[in-house]
Design goal:
Largest sheet: 6 strands, mixed
Strand content: 25-35%
Radius of gyration: 18 Å
Distance between the termini: 39 Å
Order of helices and strands: EEEHEHHEEEEEEEEHEHHEHHH
Bound molecules: zinc ion, fe (iii) ion
Oligomer: single chain
Structural class: alpha/beta
Helix content: 25-40%
Length: 259
């Protein structure tokens, strides 16, 4: 499947899922309609559907304009958050298999960053919004550490190592700088930091990240490991490191306060 990255605002990414045979596409997480229209026009693609991972304006700010410009446009998002997702036409639920622009896309419900956050999985491509970032994870605005643990370990955790992670923001370099304070000896992390520095130096995005590689350096996918739990505990007095959910919550709190 062809995925086109469309930068939005300061550090957001929208994506086009392209169906080359029928010259059509689905868009994911559109903050601004203009760059999406330009990307479609440059490739001669019709817009068939729009998918939102969650309601925040930096992921849905372009919904109304695209719906107006493309009559009959399907707009998908969590049914349980229909009231907050602009121009929604199709509420989706955990486990739904939807067909957009010729691609089968599995919906998984991962409330935490917001109570209506979903991720979209199309084969080996996962669109993770503000739940999983490269090197980090989203803030727990409307959920608990147990909710994010479920999302990262029981939902995204079941996806194969070869899964490409297309996340909602270019936060990778900052995320990895924080991770390096926790795991200064992690060689996979050092290698990823070098690769990210080179990509950013050329003005290129750090997506997609490979899920199997993320498991080697993203601390939020590593809270079950004794070395990561110990590093979190050393900065969080009195923590019960036997419970990975507790470690994940403490890790998020450390990141919230970092710098
Ligand atoms: Zn968000
Ligand atoms: Fe966001």
């Amino acid at each position: 499947m062809t995925v086109v990255v469309v930068p939005q605002l300061r550090d957001n990414y929208a994506y086009l899922l392209v169906d080359e045979v029928h010259a059509r596409a689905a868009a994911i997480d559109v903050a601004e309609a203009g760059p999406i229209e330009a990307a479609l026009a440059a490739r001669g693609l019709a817009l068939e559907a729009l998918l939102s991972t969650h309601h925040h304006p930096d992921h849905t700010g372009g919904n109304a304009a695209l719906a107006e410009a493309h009559p009959g446009l399907r707009v998908l998002g969590a049914a349980s958050d229909a009231a907050r997702i602009p121009a929604l036409t199709e509420g989706v639920h955990d486990g739904d298999l939807v067909r957009v622009a010729g691609h089968e896309v599995r919906v998984r419900f991962v409330p935490c960053h917001t109570r209506g956050h979903v991720v979209y999985v199309a084969g080996l491509d996962a669109f993770t919004g503000d739940t999983l970032f490269s090197g980090g994870c989203g803030r727990f605005f409307e959920g608990s550490a147990a909710d994010m643990y479920h999302a990262l370990y029981e939902v995204l955790g079941t996806l194969p190592d070869a899964t490409r992670v297309w996340c909602g923001h270019e936060y990778t370099a900052q995320n990895l700088a924080f991770a390096a304070e926790l795991e200064p000896q992690n060689e996979a992390l050092a290698a990823r930091r070098q690769a990210v520095e080179a990509l950013r130096g050329r003005g290129e995005p750090t997506v997609p990240a490979l899920l199997g590689e993320e498991r080697g350096y993203n601390p939020f996918l590593r809270v079950h490991l004794p070395a990561v739990a110990a590093a979190v505990a050393a900065r969080s007095p009195g923590l019960d490191v036997r419970d990975p959910v507790v470690v994940l919550g403490a890790l998020r709190a450390l990141k919230d306060e970092w710098r």
